Amino acid sequence: MLLEINNLHVYYGAIHALQGVSFSVNEGEIVTLIGANGAGKSTTLRAISGLLTPRGGTIRYKGRDITSMPAEEIVRLGVCHVPEGRRIFAPLTVRQNLELGAYTRKDKAEIDKTMQRVFASFPRLKERINQLGGALSGGEQQMLAMGRGLMSRPNLLLLDEPSMGLSPLLVEEIFRIIKEINAQGTSILLVEQNALMALSVAHRAYVLETGNIVLQGSAQEMRENPQVKAAYLGVA
Predict the structure, then answer these.
(1) Which residues of the chain carry a pLDDT beneath 50?
(2) 120-151: string of b/e by CB count within 10 Å (b at 16+)?
(3) Which of 212, 214, 184 is nearest to 30 (CA)?
């Protein structure tokens, strides 16, 4: 098992944001967490990547306990978090943003190879390599955020709301690339408001409601589940 979350509890002050969450991601999978705003999806990713310290439970990656490990160590182990809202470095060029994604690596020739692979997935970034991040469109910034994440050569990519604010056409493109990244061997934990798109690419899914996992199963089962259909897929 690549990632195993067991009985995770996270608080924001007095607010009990995650209330005993347990789930797993296997090698080679796309697993999606779906749920309404405030359900705890982003909090879960932030706990895994070391940006939040859980008050209870364990996070194990490749069998190793990473629950209280500093974020930069977790990146070195092969876990990369592409945050909600892109968070690119607007005053830096596309190239500089990508180079920063590889800050834990020292192998210059291999870094160049990874950058070429990123350009193969995101040709538009290559065209804009010397442009400032802040001058890119929303879709291009999302591509840059994902490309920057891939520069660390992660085994596990945590994607938080990659389709947020994008046109339907760009959403299709981003999800095609997510499938492509997975096919190249990267496991993905995907948090996504667009449950229909998330379930179209995922292998398995968990439904989070107010800090608890209330449903789980294959993506196919979740697509056909009446509760999921009514609450998240807009189907009565």
Answers:
(1) none
(2) ebbebbeebeeebbeebeebbbbbbbbbbbbb
(3) 184
**3 state SS of 61:** strand
> Which alpha helices (H) appear in 78-225, and where do they start and end?
94-101, 108-121, 123-127, 138-150, 168-183, 195-201, 219-224
Interacting residues of 160 by C-beta distance below 8 A, sequence separation 6+:
41, 42, 45, 81, 82, 83, 84, 191
User: Alpha-carbon dihedral of residues 15, 39, 74, 103, nearest 10 degrees?
Assistant: -110
Contacts of 168 (CB under 8 A, 6+ apart): none
Residue spans of the domains in the chain: they are 1-78+154-236, 87-153
Cβ 78 vs Cβ 32: under 8 Å: no
Q: Average pLDDT, whole number, for the chain?
A: 94
Residues 6+ apart with CB under 8 A from 60: 1, 3, 4, 5, 6, 66
In angstroms, the CA 17 to CA 133 distance is 33
CB of 207 closer than 8 Å to CB of 222 = yes
Can you give the pLDDT at residue 236? 57
Fold of 1-78+154-236: Rossmann fold (3.40.50)
Tokens (6 digits) for 50: 């070391």
